[in-house]
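Practice problem: predict the structure.
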Amino acid sequence: MTRLQVPASLRRAPLGALGTLLAVTVSVLVASYAHALQPPAGSTRSVQGRVRVPTRSGGDSTGMGPARNIWVTLHRVGKDTAGPIDSIRTGAEGTYRFSYKPFGAGDAVYFASTTYGGIAYFTAPLRDANAAGDVAEITVFDTTSRTFPLSVKGRHLIVSKADSAEMRTVVEVFELSNDSLVTLVTAEQQNAPPTWSVVIPAAAIDVRANEGEISPDAFAAQNGRVNVFAPIAPGVKQIAFSYKLPASSFPLRVRTERPVVVFEVLVEEAQGDVKGQGFAAVDPVTLERRNFRRFLAQDVKADADLVVEVPAGATSGRNLYIAGLLVAVGFLMMLALTRSMQRAAAKRGRVEPTLRPREPEVPLSDRLAQEIAALDAVYARQDAPTASVSAAYEARRAELKAALSQALAEASAGR
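Answer:
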């Protein structure tokens, strides 16, 4: 199940505005799903699902109960048109059902959404002719503006070579986990605290949100901190941003404000080094003919220090494009590491009971489609990409599309 977090300015928006927001959010994925999501023209399709919400009484063994009498909307997003096509209220068991006939462009995506507590939640794209079960289930949560710590499952720090102006681009990616059963939101008042915040170097300039799960409208950098004002629902959420640092900022000292399960540092120089308790060099990473030294640490404590050392006098030019690619790569690395750790923990000891529902594993095809979308968005930001950058972009996109086609073919063969 996938969630869309609505910025504060749109929390009370009418259905039309929310439909537009949802359309814009998923439209970037339409091209990637085009060959996998072509419904037969004129055939009737259906979706039958339910909406669940945490409850203190009357729920099932996971602590979830039906969300009754709330609107669920069926959406269509295509190259020709996009918008809501039908709505219905959930029944006593939180169930809903739509029947519809696909129309227009064959690459259109259909999905269902609901709004609860001012936050919009939606299903994954509906691929089957008769979608039901987990694919059509939507989990919603109550909201709270009473701030509480979010655990950091993963943190990635990516340091590029210096450009011709002796500036280095630094990309930071966080996997934050809301382990509660409520969606954290900012209070609707002036000077309300952010839902999440982290310190950045005082010399950082050109701070901007990258292709994560946060709208740039809900992102602010001031007084040496990055502040996020977007709602953060239960589960894991990725936040990515970048900034530039002058050569005088290195060696770069970084302090963890909160514990980190897995901390990864990539340095684009063979002489680069990372010093800090628990950090160890592992196999380097090669991406688009660029080499990065890689350092990993697990279970990093709060207020731990690490130092990133780089050689002085680098002169070759670099740009944000490569750093943006590493956001997606780092996220996939984090997924693999987290799953490995979870399997090891399961073998070592017992599993603690929890009321939180289990999140379904994201299919490989969906992750590849998201990586293609992130790659396209980063490339689109380049005002005047060089021929080498364009060639690297085309080559990487072709690799991802080939992998996506193979993943979709294997998934179809396994049905």
